[in-house]
Amino acid sequence: MTKLHDPDRLLHTVHFESPSHTGTLLCGLQALRCKGLLIDVTLIAEGESFSAHKAVLASCSDYFRAMFTDAMKESRESEIRLNGVTAAGIRLLLDYAYTSRLALTLDNIQDILSAASHVQVVAVVEACSNYLQAQLDLDNCIDIATLAEIYSLTQLRKRVYRFMCAHLSEFSRSPDFQRLSLIQLEHLLACDFPVDCSETQVLNIVIQWLKKGGERCQASALKILRRVHFAEIPERDLESTLALCSDPCISRLILLESCFQRKMKQDRNEVIPPLVNSRGMELAVIKVGGFGLGGITNEVTYFLASSGKWRHLTSIPHVEQCNFGTAVLDNELYVVGGCFNQSLQENIHPFGFRYCPQANKWSTMAPMHRERCRFSLNVVAGRLYAVGGSNETEEDDAHDGDVCLCECYDPVTDSWETVTPTSGSRSQHAGAAWPQTSPHLLFISGGLDRDLVLSSMLCYDQWTDTWQTKAPMLSPRADHVMLTIGDKVYVCGGWKEDEATGGRQLVDTIDAYNVAEDTWETITVVPTPRYHAGIVSVQSKIYFIGGFHNDALFDRATASVDCYDLETNTWSSKDKYPQDVWEHTCVTLYVPRCRDDMEVLPLAK
């Protein structure tokens, strides 16, 4: 033993921790409880007695910790009566305190939740909330909502009402829907979650609830009807609904409230979005793909004016790619074609994907007839039009060099069909739909015909399937963007060939095309022109997001966001994108405001 105390011998400290100690401790405490040893308190609920140790209760319950340590009179008593909780709930809660295990079922969940909430066992309350969320369906959603409201389970309550709204059409047809209390229905209509039906259907759902609820519910009709978005109900639908409503009192209130809301909407000059229903939705600026400091990315991010921040939305479900076409049809994002690198070679593909923001899901669509990248994709009268671009067979097919091949996608049949091509090849061009005439038109401008930067513009008539030549742009452009805003089509960004050096030269103007007069004019000069910026319009504003200022190898990219206001003819700088980004595309899309909090729970199959 003397060697152990040798001062010349360096001793190492060893820290020992037994992984089984926690389990051993709990087993020992449970054994003491079962044998009635060292018991210092008895809990009484519904006339039943339960022996326990104050130290164990205080260690896992805020309620008992305060009771036994804050000089309350109960701290000196050996019996504690618990009112408002069941014996079954206390029994199961004590089992958890001594074993860390708890079996939750639909039969015992209310007893356990009541007891855990009463004595403030937070971990069990959270477990009950998660269990109820997992069991959520149309048959029990009202009961779960009621429990969430009784026990102030805020997140669970949000989940339940989000679920009800997401499946409102089916939920409203179930007998249980009439069990909603006045307060619950009012909250359902006011909580601003996306719904799966039109506002006309929402009104009919409210009318049926009011009729079946009797005089008591009808007395609160105005309170409920104020939650209906009448400005989004077409006048013809409103007239039909009023004609079918047999209650004159409800009809009169509907008429009064609808007139009031429509007047308020007109005063604010608000535009109803092209959605089945705008409840819970907000227009977002969407950044799709592109390049960043980490290289190519398939990430899709979004910006809401209400939050003022960029957030992750989703990712394109494909190998990382670029030079694809993007478009928005019926508030769904389409990403079609593009190219990716494989073994240091560019691979061009024809495949497409469709993203639904309400369901937060991607689905595949029929591939184009031919692979494309660096092409234009635009929506015209409910169809997608893919025009021109580059493909892998151009060099081998002499015919492709003489025409710009085009095709059209029908989302109803999920199929593509060829349309009349344009003369000459064209890639890295821009397109914009013109929906203000009948038939709707498609304009195509600029781009490259092999190595020549074009200034020409063409117009496609979907009714006659023909192309017409229009007045050329004021300057050749490639890799630019066309935007339809109000009564004009605007061209922004892009580059042309520098006649002196043969290199690329940024085009620093925004030019506007007057469709009626077939004329162009320069609107403004871009203060910081860029290559490959994301350019998008929101109402009367044009945003330039990211891009790079020159062809230098280093320090060329930017994250800055500049905005041009057409109404005031002024430029302003906005908060930067979170990182440098370029060669991305930007669109606008309505997304759920609540998507940061939760996802829509699917119906069980």
UniProtKB/TrEMBL annotation:
The keyword Repeat applies. Keywords: Kelch repeat, Repeat. PROSITE patterns: BTB (PS50097). The keyword DNA repair does not apply. SMART domains: BACK, BTB, Kelch. Signal peptide: none annotated. It holds the Pfam family BTB. InterPro entries: BACK (IPR011705), BTB-kelch_protein (IPR017096), BTB/POZ_dom (IPR000210), Kelch-typ_b-propeller (IPR015915), Kelch_1 (IPR006652), SKP1/BTB/POZ_sf (IPR011333). GO terms for molecular function: actin binding. Residues 39-106 form the BTB domain. Probable substrate-specific adapter of an E3 ubiquitin-protein ligase complex which mediates the ubiquitination and subsequent proteasomal degradation of target proteins. May have a role in synapse differentiation and growth. This is Kelch-like protein diablo. It comes from Menopon gallinae (poultry shaft louse).
